[in-house]
Amino acid sequence: MLSRFNVFTKITLLILLLLIPVLTLYTYSNRESVKVIEHEIQSGTTNRLSFFASQVEATIYQLSLYGVSIGQDSSIQEYQRPDFAGQPYERVKLSVSILEKMNLYNAASKWHSDITLYFPRIRQVLSTDYYAALAYDEKQFEAPFPQTWRYEGNRFVWHATDPVSAMASPKLARLITKISFPIEHLTALLDQNKINNSGDPFLFDPAGGTIRNGSANEARIALLSNRLKDTPLAENGAFRAELDDTEYFVSYIRSKSLGWYYVDYVPMQQILTPVTSSRNLFYLSIAVLLVMSVAVVFALYRSVQLPLLQLVRGTKRLSAGDFSVRLPNAERNEFSVLFGRFNIMAQRIQELIENVYEEQLRRREATLKQLQSQINPHFLYNCLFYIKNMARMKNEQAVVAMSLNLGEYYRYITRSENDRATLREEVRMATNYLNIQALRLERMRFEIRIPDAMLERAVPRLTLQPIIENAIVHGLEPQAEDGEILVDGSCENGLCMITVEDSGVGMTDEAMAVLQRNLEKPLDRDMGCGTWNVHQRMIFLFGEGAGLRYARSASGGVRVTLTWPDNTDE
């Protein structure tokens, strides 16, 4: 299929085929690079969030562990002895010791927390919160304690009992420990995590709302919170979300202690900006290269393809016979030399064709003159021999008639300004000739039946006379009985025909076939020139299909049919 394209189309397709693999390979490479970077973003965000969650969980676990283990302290066990009620000084002294231990724990802990001890047996309360006036109220311990930390008024609270089985029924506990810490500790960790990384972490709970870092984008986190509320969340996971026409990668991990979700998100485009810039630069380079390719293709089309098309069209016109074609020679390049040589070649071919055509016309005219001049002496010889014979026979009437017709004949053929005559003039000449022959052969009869509509048709001079002469000489004269010559004419189906029939001795089919073949051969000394000249002149003037045809006549002689196309009124 490619072989049917021209050179310009092949070059254009080649340029496109060179660009397509480059675009395909770079697109694939860019896509793989983006996938790798996205995977790194996802891994980094998830790992960073996991590390943050582990920090929070470790601190909360220490607080929870302290809340469980504090009941095993001997001071606390001694403080809640019933017999210790009668020793107020010792109890106060012991309570101060317990508070010092709890404050020492707060000092050693990462987070400062409020620790409150409830003693159901002695209905006493000890707390590190010196500003809170706490009193024992057994109503607040009617409901079972949850196993996780609760969010209460910007603080997270957790209860532990001694024994642990009393979590379901706090009234049965010997000791109830309440530990709480403010959300400022979580906010500080979020701020630290944001400084060290590129994300914007926060805590989310469908019921409790969000806990954000100090410089969080509140509007964006609000949008993301709505998205999180509408999304079924597992223990951990990640998804992509489009916020403010920007795509973000969101990771989340559920806290086993708090029941909240640690959430972090990073914009994908922020990390992919270098890759995107590189991609856009490459596409810009490809666009510039494509524009340059179009310019090169246009230059090739204008400098090569258009001249080639002009040369091809000029060659086609030249091969079709239009030798006047010339190619414009505007630009100064290699094709200008080629166009100049083509124009010189076309001019020389035109001159050569015109010279040959003129030579053919001259040769054709000379041939017609020669053929016509050959027939004139032939007829003159026959007439002179006839006059000679009639003079010997003292037949003055025949001599006079022949002389008169001979004079008319020479007056007719010496009008050399035109090589053709009308059929009317030919019929008149043939009638004069038949009258002469009828005088010479008293047993001959003739009849001419040519429609008046044909009489103005143009034919070569001396066309009928040689045919009639052959019919008389070779058909009627050799037989002893009377003979007849019939000349008939017609025009139909675009052809004009004149038939000359005689009732003479006739010819065999083989002899007529030989005579028909001789009409197409060059003239030699053994052939009669009369009918051959007529046949050749008809072909010269009217082309192939015109000429003489021999056939057997119904009266026993020979029928000669003269045919030519009815395409001229000359």
UniProtKB/TrEMBL annotation:
TM stretches of this protein: 281-301
Gene3D superfamilies assigned to the protein according to its UniProt record, in alphabetical order: HAMP domain in histidine kinase, Histidine kinase-like ATPase, C-terminal domain, PAS domain
Keywords associated with the record: Cell membrane, Kinase, Membrane, Phosphoprotein, Transferase, Transmembrane, Transmembrane helix
Domain of life: Bacteria
EC number: 2.7.13.3
GO molecular function: protein histidine kinase activity
Pfam families per the UniProt record, alphabetical: HAMP (PF00672), HATPase_c (PF02518), His_kinase (PF06580)
Enzyme class: transferase
Subcellular localization: Cell membrane
Protein name: Sensor histidine kinase
Membrane-protein topology: Multi-pass membrane protein
Annotated HAMP domain residues: 302-354
